[in-house]
Automatic annotation (TrEMBL):
Keyword annotations: Signal
Name of this protein: Uncharacterized protein
Coiled coil residues, start to end: none
Protein's organism: Oidiodendron maius (strain Zn)
Stored InterPro entries: AB_hydrolase_fold, Carboxylesterase_BioH
Signal peptide boundaries: 1-19
Lineage: Eukaryota, Fungi, Dikarya, Ascomycota, Pezizomycotina
Length: 369
């Protein structure tokens, strides 16, 4: 009895504290390193100085007993860092802990020019995400109803609005991001390819949102080292740009070149497309797919892909187009449309929502198939 009431008091103290997050600690090894990037010369007046750009901060978490053959590399989306997966903004276990507890080595990272990965002033432009965008698109979509599924959001811990302590803890983690998509895609693909080369063993990539296209390009560049890609609501849909700063994707799923057979041509100009209307009576969008015969993503076709999409996200109307595009281009792609597999009420930040570990369990089962 004493022990129980002590535990309850401890929990109250934890949740009463102003500073989130305070996740449970687990025994694991933690090391960091930087990888990728290159030296560049910058002229100013009559002097030239040397700097390094494009390297990424990587954190290696090793469970006390490694039981799984392939490590998992996590790449977070726009304005996010590796903290996304460490624990949740209300202090629960994140996906990193979960996969560690299952015997996986986990690599968390910050994209180039993001968080602990340096940005060289003058290399593109840095922008920030305002609270309204986070509320509208991530945490409180049910209050704004900007797309047909938005009202189905129930899994964010707390109100998802400014002033709620969980929102405030989450918003405080939002950092700057590169405003130039082409710079972002080029630097990310190069840095994560360098990471895969450095590890030099088959890996799983887990990408979120903006990082989706970066994962496709790393898989395209290293199809023999990237064994599986789990893409949580990857940037899309094919060829189109949506929220909030993403332009068209001339290579279908990416802005920069990926290998097609026959070739996609300069800036994807040989890809010919059709519009496939949305199934009638659904809340889905039309899809832009390739016209027949579709060119094949010959490198990415060597990688197994899982796309995961939540019930209420702004991706819910169109992620099925990305899945169909990949399949049409020869990539073996599974799709966890979460409500279809019985997981309801999630939004774009599913890995930190109330049922985050339930989703992780399903992904784990897919990884181990
Ligand atoms: C470099 O430029 C500065 C001013 O811009 C000048 O004072 C200096 O003499 C120059 N040095 C050389 C080596 O030309
Ligand atoms: C590449 O194609 C996209 C549209 O598909 C276009 O917006 C962009 O300007 C093109 N870039 C170049 C360098 O031609």
């Amino acid at each position: 009895m004493h022990f129980n009431s002590f535990k309850i008091l401890a929990v109250l103290a934890l949740y009463g504290a102003a500073a989130y997050p305070t996740a449970p600690s687990a025994p694991y090894g933690r090391h960091y390193f930087y990888v990728g990037g290159k030296y560049i010369q910058v002229a100013s007046g009559n002097t030239t100085s040397q700097y390094r750009v494009g390297q990424i901060y990587v954190e290696k978490l090793t469970p006390s007993i490694v039981t799984k053959q392939h490590p998992i590399i996590f790449i977070a989306g726009s304005a996010q860092t590796g903290t996304n997966f460490l624990h949740t903004p209300d202090g629960r276990e994140g996906w990193a802990h979960y996969f560690l507890s299952q015997g996986y080595v986990v690599y968390l990272s910050d994209q180039p020019e993001r968080g602990r990965s340096p940005w060289l002033p003058g290399h593109g432009e840095m922008v920030a995400i305002a609270t309204t965008a986070i509320e509208n698109f991530f945490t409180a979509t049910q209050d704004f109803n900007l797309w047909p599924q938005a009202s189905l959001h129930t899994q964010w811990p707390g109100s998802g609005r400014v002033g709620d302590p969980v929102f405030d803890a989450f918003y405080a983690t939002q950092v700057q991001l590169q405003n130039d998509n082409l710079i972002a895609e080029a630097t990310n693909a190069a840095a994560y390819t360098a990471l895969v080369d450095y590890l030099n063993q088959p890996v799983y990539l887990l990408t979120h949102s903006q990082a989706g296209p970066f994962g496709w390009r790393v898989g395209d560049a290293r199809p023999n080292l990237v064994k599986k890609i789990v893409a949580l609501e990857p940037g899309g849909p094919p060829f189109e740009g949506v929220f909030p700063f993403f332009g068209p994707h001339p290579y279908g799923i990416t802005d920069l070149a990926v290998e097609y057979d026959p070739p996609a041509g300069p800036n994807g100009s040989y890809l010919s497309t059709i519009v496939r209307p949305a199934p009638p009576g659904t809340k889905l969008t039309d899809c832009i797919l390739q016209a027949d015969p579709p060119k094949q993503l010959v490198n990415l076709a060597k990688v197994s892909v899982l796309v995961v999409t939540s019930e209420s996200s702004y991706h819910a109307p169109y992620d099925y187009c990305t899945v169909d595009y990949l399949k049409q281009a020869g990539v073996a792609t599974d799709f966890f449309d979460l409500p279809i597999i019985g997981i309801r009420g999630n939004g774009h930040m599913m890995f930190m929502e109330k049922n985050n570990l339930e989703i992780a369990e399903r992904i784990l089962a897919w990884m181990e198939e």
